[in-house]
Amino acid sequence: MSDAYWFSPAPSEVMCSRLSLDFNLRAADLFFREMIVPELGRIWFVRQLSWPLAALALHMEMGNGPRPTAICHGIEALACKLEFWANPNSPSPRVLGRRAFGRDAEQDVWSFHQLRQPAHYVRNTHRQAATRAIRADGGLGFARGSRFDLLELEPVGRKIAENFLEQRVGQGRMSLRKWLRGWLEDHQGVPSHPKALLQALSPERATVAERELVYSRLVGRSTPAGEKRKRLAHALGRAENLKSIGGDGGVVDCLRKAGHSEQANEIVVARAFGTMLDRARDTVAILTHAVELGRGGVKLANLARDSALKKSIKDLRTTSKNYVGKVNELNAVAIKGVATSRDFSNAVVAGEDMEAIRILVERCGKLLGLADGVVTRGPLFRVVDATDEGSALEDGVASIEPDGTGRTFRIANFHSLLRDAERRGAL
Prior knowledge:
This protein is mainly alpha-helical.
């Protein structure tokens, strides 16, 4: 027997594989997204709500069956896989799991117990994006509770689940509820020609009743959040494409003309914050190019003399000053909610170029490192080429959302959801 031992690495030795360039300002980012489109979370199409609500209903009916989380992941994985294989060369943008589905092309991976596993679908699911919007506390009010597995359906949530589950599929036109229960218990397999099943589960084909119920919650609630969404929906209009947010005839302009200047100002401030983040990401992108070329790292003093970095830092200072100015136009509650981002802006504006670089390096996660006045490659180092690419480093559902870059603060998601709920767009 060997006298060598194996130990699990300490937490500090485990390398995180996910990189997010939020500069420790995620709380402010979420604050603005909730302020601009309250209670929506990351929802952008109706079936993101129908799938988890149906999973909660099925779990209650089945008693000791799988947890709601597992049921929901299985249902949405099956729905996405059916939609993917209906048109693998140009699948719906709402489909997650394309890489896994393509990898499983030569295998018969269609059972619930297979598709519920991240290896055959994704780790960051639609259900995770929907949980907050489902809840009564801070959401659209479809279910009550704190954790998804413990949620209890409200009457409107049950109605959506029932309309989804009572669709007819399979031989003898059985209900989707009956088919799914058989599939969850491994008694029912996916048919070789699953046209009816695809239509019933598809992310693109919510029923009229599902859409109407979701739409009523979006713009029909007499609450402060509901009224704010209603005003925003009116400003967005019904155009197929999202209108410009700023400029003549844009969303901000429409809100002002309708007498909602405070709501318009909130969007202006959020966009100023987003612009500041984009310029910070642009500066980090230049840093990654410089550090890639410098073996062993590059001295802060040398980086501060780089002409491209100096220009980028100047742009960052300009947007930071603009953001602070816009923040000061909001009321005290809003200012309190963005205190950390205002501190970041002031620090960038006040310091020399070398100090601005130091601040960015310390706030870019594990992308870069700093030791003894030298900027080095961090554990998650990679070259970032542009602002959008910097945003795309964040793994998960956000990469396919209309608001994937985060710069519309969920207005794009809201526009997409409104169109889906109104039966507009692709069906």
